[in-house]
User: Fold this.
Amino acid sequence: MRIFLALLLCIPLVGNAQTLKKAFRFSTFYAAVNGNNSLSDYNTYSVFNGPLSTDIIETPFDYSLTLGIRKIARFKYENRANVFYNGEEHSYSDAATIGTVKGFEFLFESDYRRQQGVLYLDQNHFLRYVGGRFVGKVEYVQDGFADVSYLEASQRLRINSKGKLSFNIGGAQRISEPYGYDPLKEWELPDGSLHYTQLALSEGYSYDFVTGEYMNPDGDVVASSFDVWREVVIPEVLKDYVQRKRGELNTEWNYSLVVGFDYYHYTKDFWLHSWGNVLPRHLNTGSEFSYFQLNGGQWVDYSGGLVFGWKLNRSFGWFLEGRYNKYWNREWHDFSVGVNYVIF
Assistant:
């Protein structure tokens, strides 16, 4: 809710109802449920003191619940694949700095999904304004699969805005959890190994020297051998500890210089759309858990995308599309490449 409010506060259009209606004209609100089967069930076998034991590992079906509203003009190389929006659409150009039209465009989409038995929440909300010499954007991204989330705002001066190739420069402000913070660092021994048993004891786990059993903080037996303790219990202890420690810290502000470019060329047989952003310098806020402090100084973040298509003749064509992001110590990307051949 706070993210939605932060984005909506940046809309300078709410002066009257007529202006607001104009802002949402041609936008599409959509809600959808999608599902499919996941991994097939498979058998596992084990032998303990003689008898054969068989178990079936089942993975529940995959599904997604999507809710969103969007108003984004399509580039000429884009075609509407479906009559209705169902949240499964994938447009690389949504991440571009410059849209195909001037003015405001926006996307607010939340996607709650279960994939191979694991639950994820993905969110992509942005409000973008493109003018003749100015570009502004407020964006919130949460990628559950890549384990990254942040709120970013940028204000940029656009150079050579009437040409195919344009550049932009300005400032970016980001809010995120303190990426780079490693809660396990304080438990490392001089040889680089981890004192995991001492960590588990500090978390409330215990060991009975008489029975040789390991207990959780509630007193339940979780392991009766060292191998089970080390291979099964300890990974869960470390996971829970890291999540708890990360959740205890406040979010961090990042203030950065941003430099970018955008190139767009289109004909019916050949098109190239590319964009990139580099954040080479960052302000040292002095915060103990800022990435500047945890990284030991300056670093370079960057992102970019490419949409390329070439129809060599009426039958054969090939395409390459993708985008890549590297922020702090996180990387996430997606791409698609292939050929099409039409038989006449």
In short: The chain has two domains: 2-179+251-341, 183-248. The two ends are 53 Å apart (CA to CA). The mean pLDDT is 88.
